[in-house]
Amino acid sequence: MVNYRYLGNSGLKISEITYGNWLTHGSQVENDAATACVRAALDAGISTFDTADVYANTKAEQVLGDALKGERRESLEIFTKVYWPTGPGGPNDTGLSRKHIMESIDGSLTRLGTDYVDLYQAHRYDTETPLEETMQAFADIVRQGKALYIGVSEWTADQIRAGHALSKELGFQLISSQPQYSMLWRVIEEEVVPTSAELGISQIVWSPVAQGVLTGKYAPGAELPAGSRATDEKGGANMIKRFLDDDVLRRVQELKPVADELDLSLAQLAVAWVLQNDNVAAALIGASRPEQVAENVKASGVVIPEELLTKIDTILGGVVERDPGKTAETAPKGRVA
């Protein structure tokens, strides 16, 4: 069964393995299979579910809401996000303006079949809306009881600091950051993590298995497995391509003895690795089959000895991306229509 951790400097506990439905529900996976995965997550003790309005253009929220129907609401932590374009893509169907936020939260609650979300997250930083406007809208949503806490995703350390200062001024809690983080992608370690730790914010990390590369299923020089993320033209292939380098794939294969020593699969090792970071509250995992959920949960509670952490660093060497500037570099420079 999964362990639980506090989210930021709050009293909210979440499952350290959190179920996310990006690139699966409403897109890659049929609804019955998606529901089976959610049931497997609940059976494994996962109580925290993360989605976003943009996933499958709102369909993912609907699928998750349907899958959780009948569950005791108080026993769940449901997270969603706002920023990316939804609906027909009109000029106000994107970003973090007050209009888009206030309309989006109501749409998300309807699709999820709930009166409130436990965490409402800014899915990216909006360079075209004053931060004060965004944070005031979040403050009002919290006061209306539509969200209990507020978080951000892929914000830089400076943006997090500015948002946190305004949240304190406006009387609500900014408690989380949701960045990409894995053995191969460590760009948050130099700036985002220390800033967050100082401010009482913790990380809910996505892609702990680096889009599937850290599962070891992609072999150097081999053809891409049929039906894998790397062959998915709906978005998965574009996200994974940065890791599909033969040197990266060879080094991942060399992690197998480390995983064996801990009696873990490579995927479990990858999830357990991100959870060794004290500032990480949860690792987001997705699934297309229920058995994948059961396997990933085995990473919960694992302690990787220091000598093996050092060995992992030695094996991966220079293929690890550590540049903190990548957070800003990969962020949208303006609203995406």
Automatic annotation (TrEMBL):
Domain of life per record: Bacteria
UniProt KW NADP keyword: yes
GO molecular function, one term: oxidoreductase activity
Keyword Nucleotidyltransferase: no
Position of the signal peptide: none
Keywords: NADP, Oxidoreductase
Record GO cellular component, one term: cytosol
NADP-dependent oxidoreductase domain: residues covered: 16-315
InterPro entries xref list: K_chnl_volt-dep_bsu_KCNAB-rel, NAD(P)_OxRdtase_dom_sf, NADP_OxRdtase_dom
Family to which this protein belongs: Belongs to the shaker potassium channel beta subunit family.
Listed PANTHER family: HYPERKINETIC, ISOFORM M
Protein name as catalogued: Predicted oxidoreductase, aryl-alcohol dehydrogenase like protein
Native species: Sanguibacter keddieii (strain ATCC 51767 / DSM 10542 / NCFB 3025 / ST-74)
Lineage of the organism: Bacteria, Bacillati, Actinomycetota, Actinomycetes, Micrococcales
